[in-house]
Design goal:
Elements (H helix, E strand, L loop, with lengths): L2 H11 L4 H8 L3 H8 L7 H11 L3 H5 L6 E6 L6 E6 L1 H40 L1
Antiparallel strand pairs: 1-2
Length: 128
């Protein structure tokens, strides 16, 4: 995932508009949109501002390449310890999937409420 894609995903995960981020950066919304499209090269001060806004390390924004998962198994007296290391790209993708899942659960809860209200309306109309 490229830097500009990470920036867009982080903004979306925080449910911020491009205008809100542009305001935090003291720039126009169009200028910020160009950042997300990868049309401008970011300087270090701008990257530091973005990292501060999203509360991530500048290095996390800069790292690119394939995402991956690394497992490390250490055998010992306790039967082996397993550690899991996830690259930054994968962490962002997992966060995005969690956000989508949360949204789906909210939609299902809303639909359940609507179904219950319809049942009540039907019940009320039958009793009249």
């Amino acid at each position: 995932m490229e830097t500009h894609e990470k920036i867009r995903v982080l903004r979306e995960l925080n449910k911020w508009s491009q205008e809100e981020i542009a305001e935090k950066l003291d720039m126009t919304a169009g200028g910020y949109a160009r950042i997300e499209r990868g049309e401008v090269k970011l300087n270090i001060p701008r990257l530091e501002q973005l990292a501060a806004i999203f509360q991530v390390d500048v290095w996390d924004l800069l790292q690119s390449g394939k995402s991956g998962v690394v497992f490390q198994i250490n055998e010992g007296d306790s039967g082996g310890d397993i550690s899991l290391s996830v690259t930054s790209d994968t962490q962002i993708e997992v966060a995005l999937i969690k956000q989508e899942l949360k949204h789906c659960k909210e939609l299902l809860a809303q639909k359940d409420k609507e179904i219950e209200l319809l049942r009540q309306i039907i019940q009320t109309s039958k009793s009249e």
